[in-house]
Amino acid sequence: MGRQASIAIWMAVMLPGLIMGLSLGVEVTSWAAVQVSLQRAADVAAIAGAINYKATTNKQTAATFAARIAQLNGGTGTASPSWNAGTSTLTDNLITAQVVTGWQTTSNTALKVTVQKVIPAGVSKAFSSTASYTVTATGTAELISTTSAGSGGQPCVVALAGNTGVTTGTNLTISGTNTIDATSCTIRSNTGMTITGTNNVTAQAIYVGGTLTNTGSNSITGTVYQNQGQIPDPYASVTEVQTALTTANSASGATAISCTGSLTCDGPSGKTSCTGSVCTIQPGTYAGLSVIGSGTVNFIPGRYTFTGNVLFDGLNTIVASGVTFVMAASTSGTPNTLQFNANSNITFSAATTAGAINGQIPGILFASTSTGASVNNGSNTSTLTGVVYYPNGTWTDNGSNISNTPGCYQLIAKTITVTGSANFGTTNCAVYGTTGFTSVSGTTTRSAQIVH
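RESULT FIELD:
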């Protein structure tokens, strides 16, 4: 009896403590359960707010939406939350939703949601004077961009067309009885494409934003892909090119160069020199260029900026190696044009990445934002190596033989018409530092992901 009495006394002494300990454990466990529940609510609300911002790009709307989702998942809000535009923060009683910079990438947008809940103290009051405890959970969802690679190969003929998203109409036309060779590259139109006559067209593939119309007895080698959407201007974000175009549009060329007869060139002092029927022109900024007559004109490697029209007309031999020609968009509101006429023997090549030592832009042969119609015209023999870039204008290749012997001739214009034989290619373009892009653009998606 003595031992049993001792155990009973011991149990009587210890049992209240055991019960209190168990109760405190249950209370603490309930705090953890509340924490998990709040964390889920904060995460869900943050994701919802980020998705809403992706759709609306409105910070207050996104934060309000996030707060409402938090309420639906147990958060305590109010009918009239307050918005602080300075900090992009919505305060909704025990819910706070804020639009912040990205956690992974600062240029991204993220939604940070904090949810609180007040829990009355139970057994814990025996150890503390605190009447309640506040449990807090924070979730941050970031809009993270993921870009997939483009496909379809490198285009060498690109008709950019006009309005984004409009694929009707025809901005690339091939007509006549000619041979169009783009064996090493693809042909790309952001709208429709028309082939009429009796042409032999060879390309790795043809990609058309709209549809291709084949009228006549044309031979097409290469798979045709229709309804392929549009690709962006590949040089729109190339700073060196865009800066050169902006500079040309605001440049002042005091004097034009005029070469006539067989052959005399007039221009700014020290910029032209002629010996017999051979003239040499130095890089610089000029009001325009006109080469009419017969003879040979050599352009020294470098950048040539013209604020007016450029014309080659006559039985000329034009040699320009390692050059970039940049033309202003217009003269007194009239779009500027570039024309090669008659029986000229033309050899133009852009500078390579290693050879751009005098202001040239590697790979860029001719560039302008002019909305005018520029023409390679007549029965000339042309060797063009590099990129012809006229994103706002019309380019017509009428020459009987346009080649790219070194393996790089890319034509990019708003509208393109080819009525003569031409040889396009990108085989050797890497040497010239041209911009690489694909026939079908990669896609960029933004998804909301919990990051913190």
